[in-house]
């Protein structure tokens, strides 16, 4: 699923985007709405959407201001769709230089929007593939450096490999923990080693490159802005001695901290598990299968999932399924038994039991009360 946010100051339009568009059927997840540009920027910082749909005329910060900020100041490569009335269409064309992908003219026509969303899948797939390829190259390069680091004579020095691995793991742990004071001390210690030993420069540089590659993977999991990972600081060793590496690590630690605060399950393996479940909840999935997919112990994953999400793995799957069942009951004429089967329940009675437990009413009653 590709993540979407919509910005529009008209309540009627926002309601239309929420209820008239079959986001999931087109391959998207509507992750939030905003009523002005500044509110949209705040939402973007938390969601990191693949697609932003925005009206032009909005208070506080209009649509063009929002797009300009995204492209020029925040370096977001999200796909963008502008929504506008006929009288504003010429004005909307000014946004071409900000790489706007499509224009939508009011009022909304669901069939046209669905066609547009499906057409955008191609550039979104291409963009995602490019990002994944870049991440893979960075990770492979970093891993190769760990595996093949040698001294000037071409002989692997186990002591240096151990120092490099230890230092890299230390930085990653401190960054994810948000321990700014210890990050500062660890960087100072590493720089001191670099000053004292020519040989230390090699393995410390490799350690930082390894940290960079691993953070690329972890940033992808939490959906964070990649700007910090594109800074030249990573490759300019001399800038480290002027405090730039220390500052970079601090900023990254703050990113992880804010991500964890915004969503208890937004960091590390639990976030990866949640993303996988959102994409596969319709299938019959077991904790062991998920653990195998992300290469962790099943018991440990179950414990971490319950601690961070507040509910068990199986309960989370049920909630995803029942939320989708509510949408299908509202918008389709499918039989309850067919909906149950579609969502991975092979027993309609069990589906009914879980639906009532989570919503407080039977699916048949919910359907009668919520269909137009």
From TrEMBL:
Keyword field: Cytoplasm, DNA-binding, Phosphoprotein, Transcription, Transcription regulation, Two-component regulatory system
GO cellular component, one term: cytoplasm
MF terms (GO), sorted A to Z: DNA-binding transcription factor activity; sequence-specific DNA binding
Domain Response regulatory: residue ranges: 3-121
InterPro entries: CheY-like_superfamily (IPR011006), Homeodomain-like_sf (IPR009057), HptR (IPR051552), HTH_AraC (IPR018060), HTH_AraC-typ_CS (IPR018062), Sig_transdc_resp-reg_receiver (IPR001789)
Main location: cytoplasm
A Gene Ontology biological process term: phosphorelay signal transduction system
SMART domains the record matches: HTH_ARAC, REC
Record localization: Cytoplasm
Chain positions with 4-aspartylphosphate modification: 55
Annotated ranges, domain HTH araC/xylS-type: 271-369
Protein name: Response regulator
